[in-house]
Design a protein that fits this description.
single chain, 413 residues, alpha+beta, 7-stranded mixed sheet, 21 strands, 25% helix, flat
Length: 413
């Protein structure tokens, strides 16, 4: 049944929030101050009509907005959108009684996303390739994507054709497409086991389309050109499905902030190092010990260092930092630490850093809630929080990155 609601604020996921007698009601694609009609189901509602629009409402950039599930908030004016993302970080810190002026958000430009995860499935109507509608399993095939680099958008029809060639399942599967210096790297997951003929046909297609690589569930099917990305001035041949920051600009901004903070450190520990986006840049001035649980990523980092010139020593260690964090005694060998964990954060590792004497720490996070938790641990351990910089690299989504810089007076030994 449709009813009338007044939106009071934006929720953490970008939904408009209406206050009702039975609690908060979340209505997507609405803005504070708007009066809307919506069909309610428990604590969520589907918007039907906007009766009174907010002056901050703008036309969305994409024809698929509200359908594809990829973007949550294209309809909000840019300055208000930036303020909302900034405040997500500030509110998370406030929830842990952390007092710090949060810097202005570093914005994200359209058409800069270099790594996109599509969902594909064969249906009676043909191959579908796109994004999953919010709170649904329905795949919305797309014809444009204003967040993504043009190199990806230009190949959408070819990527759909490739999905058709490799599909060996009735279920949906993921296709991660990354723009590299060598071309598109396509990493597929759960598409089923390829037959020999499928493998041959798909390989010929990859070569004909100029793609750099096709891998399925970690196995390289064909690699005409080794996919390479550049961290600073260092070329890295990334493994299939390797984690990369969503945009090059955000990666460089984070590296610049961390690099300035750790410039005085002679020895740095890079925790959750990945393929080396921080480690290889920091090695221009500091010795770096890179710690990462993924063997392929660590191998790529080590290989890049060995073929590079002009870097100080980089050592690497494969280690699951969730199960076995570096201890405070191990950390005391370093002058600086940078850690960039997954969304779950680094609670146990933060407890060890808090007990250490490391004078300079940079915490990087894509989740303000777990970042605030980890910063509270560090502050309680004697660190002073010097700055927090929010960075938008997930345009028009609820996600926001942040870099926090901390210092602790080093004890005399």
């Amino acid at each position: 049944m449709n009813a009338r609601y007044t939106i009071t604020r934006l929720g953490s996921q970008g939904d408009g929030v209406a206050e009702t007698e039975t609690g908060e009601l979340f209505i997507p694609f609405t803005l504070p101050g708007e009066i809307v009609t919506a069909a309610r189901e428990k604590d969520r509602a589907t918007p039907m009509a906007v009766l009174e629009a907010s002056p901050l409402r703008i036309d969305p950039a994409c024809r698929h907005f509200t359908e594809c599930g990829g973007c949550a908030i294209q309809h909000l004016e840019a300055e208000a959108y930036h303020r909302w993302k900034h405040d997500k970080v500030a509110h998370a810190l406030n929830s842990k009684d952390i007092v710090c002026d949060v810097d202005a958000l570093l914005p994200c430009a359209p058409q800069t996303r270099r790594r996109v995860v599509f969902t594909a499935r064969r249906s009676e109507a043909g191959m579908q390739l796109g994004f999953v509608r919010a709170l649904s399993s329905e795949i919305i095939s797309i014809e444009e994507c204003p967040i993504s680099l043009p190199e990806i958008v230009a190949k959408l029809d070819r990527l759909k054709a490739l999905a058709e060639l490799i599909c060996a399942t009735t279920k949906s599967f993921r296709m991660t497409v990354t723009v590299t210096g060598s071309g598109l790297d396509v990493a597929v997951h759960e598409s089923g086991k390829l037959g020999e003929n499928q493998r041959r046909v798909a390989s010929n297609f990859v070569i004909a389309q100029g793609l750099a690589r096709l891998s399925i569930d970690g196995e390289i099917i064909i690699e005409p050109k080794k996919p390479v990305v550049t961290f600073g001035s260092i070329a890295v041949a990334v493994p299939p499905g390797a984690f990369l920051q969503a945009t090059e600009a955000a990666e460089q901004a984070m590296a610049d902030i961390v690099g300035r903070h750790l410039a005085r450190a002679k020895k740095v520990a890079d925790l959750f190092a990945g393929c080396g986006s921080f480690a290889l840049r920091l090695a221009a001035k500091s010795e770096v010990h890179a710690v990462e649980g993924d063997a392929a990523a660590l191998s790529a980092l080590d290989r890049a260092f060995r073929f590079a010139s002009g870097l100080k020593r980089v050592t690497s260690e494969r280690r699951d930092l969730f199960r076995r964090p570096l201890t405070f005694k191990e950390l005391n060998a370093f002058d600086g630490v940078v850690f960039d964990p997954p969304r779950a954060g680094a609670e146990d590792q933060s407890k060890q850093i808090a007990r250490s004497d490391v004078p300079l720490v940079a915490a990087v996070s894509c989740n303000p809630v777990t970042l605030a938790r980890d910063l509270r641990i560090l502050i309680d351990g004697g660190y002073a929080l010097k700055s927090v910089t929010p960075i938008d690299q997930f345009l028009w989504s609820p996600h926001v990155e942040a870099v926090a810089l901390l210092e602790k007076p080093r004890r005399r030994r």
